[in-house]
Every structure is written in C-alpha cells, then in structure tokens.
C-alpha cells in the first residue's frame, strides 16, 4: 500500500515549472469551421523542479526522500514552489466546506434576460443561500442552465439571480421538474466554505491555493489532500464574524473531481496537494569534481 513520505524543506528550489494539465477534446466542422469542445474529468497539476548545488551532507536528505518515494508508488505533500505564502487577509490556517444547498426534485424556471432561477413562491430552495455562493444545477433540458452559477442577488427564499460560470447566459425555460440544486459536488467550479472558528476572518485573494480533504479533521503533517485548487476570484466573508463563523463563496480552478461533504477540512496556510514522482527512475542527481550535487525531479498530482 502506498504511504506518505516527508519531503525535505531545505534548500529552496532554484527553478520550477508548475502546470495545470487538462484533457479537452475538440472537433472542428469541415464546412463551417466552428469548433466544439468537451472537457473531461482528467485535470491535474504537474511540476518540474531543480535544487541548488549542495554538498553531500545536505544532498543525502533529498536522495533519501527520492529513494523512499519508490518511483511513482508513494506520495508526498507538495505545492507551487513560488506560492508558499498566501496574499489574502484570512487569519486562519484552514477552512471547512459548508453544504448550503442540497435540493432534489425541484421545479425551476430560468429567465435569460434577468439571469433568474426561481421556484414556486411556496418553495424555499434558496433559504440558506448567501450572495456570492456557488450553486450547481442539474436537470434542465438546456445545458446552459445546468452547471455552476454564482449567486448575484437573492430576493427571497425561492429566487436568485446568477452569473453562469460555464456558459454566457441562461436560456428561457419554465417549470422544469426534477432539477437539483447542490454545492461542493463533482464538476463544481466554485465552492462554499466557512471559517473554522469565529476568530478566523478576512478576505481570500485570487491566486491563493487550497488543499481540499475529505476528512473532518486536519493535521498539517499527516493530512491527505484529495485535490489542490487555485482561487481565481477575490472572496470576502458573507457573515458577521462576531455572531457566526464567516462564510465564503470561492471561484476555483480546476473543477472539483469528487463530492465534498459538510465539515470536510481545507488547508489554507501553506496549502498543499498530494503528489507522486512521474517516473520509476528515482535516482535523479549528478555530482561534479568537488562533490557538489545537482538534483531535479518531476512530479504529478495524485488523482
């Protein structure tokens, strides 16, 4: 069984490449030239890094790490080497997923001109919705109405106006039955979170990374991240930290690869993903005539 290996922390990398790999199919019409695209589930980070020249007393720590990785068998915590510190004002080291939408069997109407999604006035589909939340809708006959939407306003418990994330706008549709309204589910490009304690407040800036787990507990050294994502829009709290835990809606890339339940923890301070070496050739080092070692390796996010 694969195990978590501890990666050395010094010295720092002198060169790094950090790439988000996507699997996207595309077909161009030979008649009109129009292109249709389809994004698949295979989306993950890949990195290549190099360490500075070092003497054997230091290099042996990295040699030991690479050998223990056993090629791509074992895994380790890793992050974008040039984003070790967050730039936002959030004061906590972690956050938690918060389920604010879990509606099935909904009958919804969609209005393109106003960007409105609404149920009947007797329903309370959006009773827990906050402005800035991200919802995932399924069940519409029009693909433009499905997928991730960012909530712009919430006039009442059965109506929201939204900005679609996946498409340019909604499509008019009335009284479509058997729809669902959920959040923090596979395919979502925005997530809804809460602070871990009332004392954790502040903004979360675009460019920040988050380490998503599927556990209600979190220990920096031993947690197992399920996905590493980046915030692509600034996010501010939508609740008063003096009376309740601050709540956030955060636009992310890439999309979620799996569902995350209420209370699952998220690493924020020094957020990390779970990575493994890309090849079985673990001994990736060289030495010169005065025993200065050069070490480099490539790794890929664990899916």
Give an overview in words.
It is a single chain. Helices cover 5% and strands 41% of the residues. Among the domains are: 15-79 and 275-301, no CATH class; 102-182, Elongation Factor Tu (Ef-tu), domain 3 (Beta Barrel). The chain has 303 residues and is mainly beta. It is built from one helix and 18 strands. The two termini are 16 Å apart.
Order of helices and strands: EEHEEEEEEEEEEEEEEEE
Cα(first) to Cα(last) distance is 16 Å
- Strand-residue fraction? 35-45%
Oligomer: single chain
Question: Structural class per helix/strand content?
Answer: mainly beta
Residues in helices, as a percent range = under 10%
By DSSP, the count of extended strands is 18
Largest sheet: 6 strands, antiparallel
Which term fits the overall shape? elongated
* Rg (C-alpha, Å): 22 Å
Mean model confidence by pLDDT: 93
Specify the number of helices.
1
- Low-confidence parts, pLDDT < 50 over ≥5 residues? none
Topology (elements, then pairings):
Blueprint: E1 15-28, E2 35-50, H1 56-69, E3 76-78, E4 94-97, E5 102-111, E6 116-118, E7 134-138, E8 147-156, E9 159-164, E10 173-182, E11 190-195, E12 209-212, E13 227-231, E14 247-253, E15 265-267, E16 273-277, E17 285-287, E18 293-301
Antiparallel strand pairs: 1-2, 2-18, 3-16, 4-11, 4-15, 5-6, 5-10, 6-9, 7-8, 7-10, 8-9, 11-14, 12-13, 12-15, 13-14, 16-18, 17-18
